[in-house]
Design goal:
Elements: H1 2-12, H2 15-32, H3 40-50, E1 58-63, H4 65-68, H5 74-85, E2 90-95, H6 101-106, E3 111-112, H7 122-128, E4 134-135, E5 142-147, H8 150-154, H9 169-176, E6 179-183, H10 190-198, E7 211-216, E8 222-227, H11 232-235, H12 241-247, E9 254-258, E10 261-267, H13 268-280
Parallel strand pairs: 1-2, 1-6, 3-7
Antiparallel strand pairs: 2-5, 4-5, 6-10, 7-8, 9-10
Helix pairs in contact: 5-7, 10-13
Length: 290
């Protein structure tokens, strides 16, 4: 029921309307928790001492700054993450267009790497403009990366088998060994990479045709990219990546309440191994109709 309601809301409301609804939801939660704001010191303590983030870590970060209920700025969050993992590690954040991929692709929208704002939250938008951050060339699933091997991680995303496969930035992060971090959200994009790698065929979750979409690169030149886009009909029958992950027995998965939601960490190699076991017994994100 919850899955159907969420997808119904997506169909009958615009992205702007959903942003307003989420904002009101946060206001209500903040009111009932007394309006207390979280501090940067608290965030640092939980990330390092409770969730074990440290120098040299490679992290995939998804976030909702509003859910942090913060007494600090988005820039402070980015600087904190960089300070913790250092340049010996690396940070990757998804930088997707401000509407869902199917609508973006069907409308033939152009992804401008300098002008198109990310629909993945203000922290991602701030991160993308920081010194040393590079963006992959992709019309629907671009990522921004900072730190060790950043340029090689984003290289070739426009030619990857799927937006998440082994030859994508997500696949490379999985090969290197990495963690997924959630700041105020439960979404785990690495699940898409793992299910593409484990699925037979690898494009099971996608529309069968590829879309030809234009990207305006950082230097102003244009490139047409052929890419798969997720099949919304299939996705409507699937558990959300965060819910699916929570249902698996991944020992490294840790979650702690923070602000108006929670923070989480999970080792992506552990997630891969447990998902592989789940796939072997027929348990995927797709919910079979009874």
């Amino acid at each position: 029921m919850n899955i159907n309601i969420k997808h119904l809301l997506k169909k009958i409301s615009s992205p702007q309307q959903r942003i307003v609804l989420k904002r009101w939801k946060r206001h209500i939660k903040s009111f009932f928790c007394g309006g207390r704001k979280t501090t940067l010191i608290e965030l640092r303590e939980i990330l390092t001492k409770t969730l074990g983030l440290q120098a040299g870590d490679r992290i995939v970060v998804t976030s909702s700054f509003g859910n942090l209920n913060a007494a600090y700025a988005p820039e402070d969050v980015v600087n904190l993450l960089m300070e913790i993992v250092t340049e010996k590690g690396s940070i990757m954040m998804p930088y997707y267009p401000p509407t869902n991929s199917t609508v973006w692709a069907k409308d033939g929208c152009v992804f401008d790497m300098n002008e198109t704002r990310s629909g993945m939250g203000v922290i991602t938008n701030v991160f993308s403009k920081m010194n040393g951050v590079v963006m992959s060339v992709h019309p629907t699933k671009a990522v921004c990366v900072w730190g060790k091997d950043a340029k090689s991680i984003v290289e070739g995303h426009e030619n990857s088998t799927t937006p998440f496969y082994w030859d994508s930035p997500y696949g490379k992060f999985l090969k290197y060994g990495s963690k997924s971090i959630g700041l105020g959200v439960k979404n785990i994009p690495m699940v898409h990479a793992i299910e593409d790698i484990l699925s037979d065929p690898y494009d099971f979750y996608y529309q069968k045709k590829k879309y030809r979409l234009k990207v305006v690169k950082g230097d102003g030149s244009e490139l047409v990219v052929d890419t798969f886009v997720h099949n919304e009909t299939v996705m409507e029958q699937c558990l959300a990546p965060g819910d699916y992950t929570a249902s698996l027995n991944v020992k490294s998965y840790r979650k702690i309440n923070f602000g108006l939601a929670f923070l989480y960490v999970i080792d992506n190699c552990d997630l891969f191994e447990e998902t592989k076991k789940a796939f072997a017994r027929g348990y995927t994100r797709k919910i079979e109709k009874k």
